[in-house]
Write a structure and sequence with these properties.
heterodimer; A: 4-stranded antiparallel beta sheet; 50% strand; globular; B: mainly beta; 6-stranded mixed beta sheet; 4-stranded antiparallel beta sheet; 0% helix
Chain lengths: 112, 113
């Protein structure tokens, strides 16, 4: 399968713990996006990479959130000191620079 | 800022019924418009798109026309099937250096046999 891959698919963590998610985009896609989706809402933009450069961050992305894309390939999203309000589905998408974005299946985070 | 408004759901239809899902938008520039679909247990998939006014996007029997005068992009299908049961999201991109999708809330469609 050559689609966007996200790992893990599910994560349950205790409040205050740190978590890290990984996204492997489609090969040669230079754009990579992270979105967050809560129940009953559409995906909300978090951050965007063009190759290894992080070009935009949403105001939703507090200083507890950090994302990286070393070498312009896979990306990681880390949440430090998790809070119950961080519980959501975290979606990754990649794009070759056209209008179409290809989404992974997401990582569902539950903070207890 | 940019925003997308979708009609309230959920929507339940019988097989072969006609489907309309309303979508309106506001945008800071000239947007491209999309419908994404999320089937149970799967990731978001692009269903169709339109990049300029009066364009009609179509795929799998679904259609949507980019109406600039009414800032709308309503999704239609003449005869729905049980397999169309999914969550449908309307979205836009305003082209720029950091183009990102802005989504509506989504609407759940359930089709009864």
């Amino acid at each position: 399968d050559t689609g966007v891959s996200q790992d893990p698919r599910h994560k349950i963590t205790k409040r205050g713990q740190n978590v890290t998610f990984r996204c492997d985009p489609i090969s040669e896609h230079n754009r990579l996006y992270w979105y967050r989706q809560t129940l009953g809402q559409g995906p909300e933009f978090l951050t965007y990479f063009q190759n290894e450069a992080q070009l935009e961050k949403s105001r939703l992305l507090s200083d507890r959130f950090s994302a990286e894309r070393p070498k312009g390939s896979f990306s990681t999203l880390e949440i430090q000191r998790t809070e119950q309000g961080d519980s959501a589905m975290y979606l990754c998408a990649s794009s070759p620079g056209t209008f179409e974005a290809f989404f992974g299946q997401g990582t569902r985070l539950t903070v207890v | 800022g940019d925003s997308v408004t979708q009609m309230e759901g959920p929507v339940t239809l019988s097989e072969e019924a006609f489907l309309t899902i309303n979508c309106t938008y506001t945008a800071t520039g000239y947007p491209s418009l999309f419908w994404y679909v999320q089937y149970p247990g799967e990731g978001l998939q692009l269903l169709l798109k339109a990049t300029k006014a009066d364009d009609k996007g179509s795929n799998k029997g679904f259609e949507a026309t980019y109406r600039k005068e009414t800032t709308s992009f309503h999704l239609e299908k003449g005869s729905v099937q049980v397999s169309d049961s999914a969550v449908y999201f309307c979205a836009l991109i305003v082209t720029g250096a950091n183009s990102k999708l802005t989504f509506g809330k989504g609407i759940t469609l359930s089709v009864r046999p």
